[in-house]
Specification:
Layout: E1 4-5, E2 12-13, H1 23-39, E3 41-45, E4 54-56, E5 59-63, E6 81-85, E7 91-96, E8 105-113, E9 118-121, E10 129-132, E11 136-143, E12 148-150, E13 178-182, E14 185-191, E15 196-199, E16 223-226, E17 234-237, E18 245-248, E19 274-277, E20 286-289, E21 297-300, E22 326-329, E23 339-342, E24 350-353, E25 374-376, E26 389-393, E27 396-400, E28 407-408, E29 421-428, E30 434-439, E31 448-455, E32 467-469, E33 483-487, E34 491-496, E35 501-503, E36 514-516, E37 522-529
Parallel strand pairs: 3-6, 5-7, 6-8, 7-9
Antiparallel strand pairs: 1-2, 4-5, 8-11, 9-10, 11-12, 13-14, 14-15, 16-17, 17-18, 19-20, 20-21, 22-23, 23-24, 25-26, 26-27, 27-28, 29-37, 30-34, 31-32, 31-37, 33-34, 35-36
């Protein structure tokens, strides 16, 4: 057998019976080459590699199977660690064995300090290749004609320890420059083409749990939070002193605080007022909650604006939060304004108190509902009927003075039968003497009652519809003449004589002449007031 060399590290295989007297020298060289492969290091100039390696523009054919002696030029391919320097441009490094078509099988460590990216492949453009960036390290394994791999491309480790400040460098303009994933599930993706870091997790936890956690922008830039949808609301924190925090729902979106299970609270971070307004406070009404105990909540419309409660489809309501009165006043409760108090409780009243010489003015109609409403003067006693004023008694308007009793109010439009007024008209006169008895419906003797004769024709020159009080109807006691009327607590009585006399309407002005009335031309009317 002739003397040969191994393909990967060029260990001399001495032929049988050869190298008598020099066998030890060859063995020592082999040991040096083994030492070189186990722990040797070297530096290769990309443009001028030396040995049997060759360089053309952008391409280095690196012969790792040069038979040069250990440590000599050309033996660098056997070293465990190789540093590449001084590339003129991005360069492809083709790793080959003793001849142009040979492939090696070996592992070596590479450090690229050439100033450019080096692309390693296993001879003449095999499909498997690997880019080592400038100022980067790699552990490359060549697998003959199967190409090469970076041993660290999928590194399974338990921990990474950085004893000092460290950088993780990723390629620029790359959609997935760095990924943290489990199978097809990607948890973190660094996109250097858009400068975006994507976190694909259900939640993100920051901080240690024992101290405040801070998320901030780099430098004097705003910080913005939004969703991945093209139409999205956002939260923007404007950088700099006095910068705003803008919460901007999309289109008709809303800002929702709290959830269906718990009450929500919006508060200040310290002893400061809380102000709510629009348009950054420009030409805007506001609501101000003043800090500290017993302070006010100020609702201030802008200009001629109003505070509107309710809407066109529902009744508005203002109420207290518990069993307390509701007070409406002016001048910030300084005591110089009018006041409205809505009393709490089942029988709580409403108190209207004008200031000074002011008055309660009702510009249009005022309605007191129910069948037992009171307008009481001075005070309203515990039992309303014990007060004095005006009341509605089951549809009848009554009045009462202090110390008096409730009674009807006399007016021109009273309706007979209302309990305070009685009227009966069109009663025919009897043909001769006699008494007409008519129930008035009161339970007491009427305070005022009246009997009027009503002319139904032109008798005694009186016009139709003219009324003459019965007291003016004359007669004589000797001849059983005239009219007398009276009342008790049930009836009105009208007593007629046989003959009834009346002065003529026109003639009475000059002659005072009386005439006996024609009974068929007259009726009479009874009116009574309780």
């Amino acid at each position: 057998m002739a003397t040969t060399f191994t393909d990967n590290y060029q260990i001399k295989l001495i032929g049988t019976g050869l190298e008598a007297g020099t066998w030890g020298t060859s063995t020592n060289e082999n040991l040096k080459r083994i030492e070189q492969a186990l722990g040797g290091s070297s530096i290769i100039d990309v443009v001028t590699p030396g040995g049997t390696s060759t360089y053309t523009t952008g391409n280095l054919e690196w012969c790792t199977a040069d038979t040069a002696a250990a440590g000599a030029t050309g033996s660098e391919g056997r070293d465990c660690f190789v540093e590449f320097t001084s590339a003129a441009q991005a360069t492809t490094v083709q790793i080959r064995g003793p001849a142009g078509g040979d492939y090696t099988e070996r592992v070596f460590f590479v450090y690229n300090s050439s100033g450019h990216t080096l692309t390693f492949n296993s001879h003449s453009g095999t499909t498997a290749q690997y880019d080592v960036l400038d100022e980067s390290y790699a552990v490359i394994c060549t697998q003959g004609s199967a190409g090469l791999k970076n041993i660290l491309s999928k590194l399974q480790i338990d921990d990474l320890v950085f004893p000092a400040e460290a950088d993780i460098l990723v390629p620029a303009s790359t959609a997935a420059a760095l990924e943290i994933a489990s199978g097809a599930t990607k948890y973190l993706t660094v996109n250097t083409s858009t400068n975006v870091v994507e976190l694909n997790t259900a939640s993100v936890i920051t901080g240690t749990g024992s101290a405040q956690s801070v998320i901030k922008s780099s430098g004097n830039q705003d910080l913005k939070l939004e969703t991945g949808n093209s139409t999205t609301g956002s939260i923007s924190i404007v950088e700099g002193g006095g910068g705003n925090i803008s919460i901007t729902p999309d289109a008709a979106g809303k800002l929702i605080v709290g959830n269906a299970s718990n009450a929500a609270t919006i508060t200040t971070g310290g002893t400061r007022d809380l102000v709510l307004n629009t348009h950054s406070g420009t030409a805007s009404g506001s609501i101000t909650i003043t800090d500290a105990a017993d302070q006010n909540i100020l609702i201030a419309p802008d200009g001629s604006g109003k505070v509107i409660v309710g809407n066109s489809g529902a009744t508005g309501k203002i109420s207290t939060g518990g069993a307390q009165n509701l007070v409406l006043d002016t001048n910030n409760n300084a005591g110089a304004g009018a006041e409205v108090i809505v009393g709490d409780g089942t029988n709580g009243g409403i108190s209207l108190t004008p200031a000074g010489t002011g008055a309660v003015t009702i510009a249009t109609d005022a309605v007191i509902s129910g069948t037992d409403g009171y307008i009481a003067f001075n005070t309203l006693a515990g039992t309303p009927s014990d007060s004095y004023g005006i009341r509605n008694s089951s549809g009848k308007v009554q009045s009462k003075s202090d110390g008096g009793a409730w009674g009807g109010i006399y007016s021109s439009n009273q309706v007979t039968g209302d309990g305070t007024y009685f009227e009966l008209s069109g009663i025919a006169l009897p043909g001769s003497y006699g008494t007409v008895t008519t129930p008035h419906g009161f339970t007491t003797v009427p305070r005022i009652f009246q009997v009027n004769f009503v002319n139904e024709s032109t008798d005694a020159e009186w016009d139709p519809g003219d009324e003459v009080p019965a007291g003016n109807i004359m007669g004589s006691a000797e001849s059983d003449q005239g009219v007398t009327y009276g009342a008790d607590d049930e009836n009105v009585f009208v007593a007629f004589g046989n003959v009834l006399w009346i002065l003529q309407k026109e003639g009475a002005l000059t002659s005072g002449r009386s005439i006996q009335i024609a009974r068929g031309d007259w009726t009479f009317t009874i009116r009574a007031w309780k």
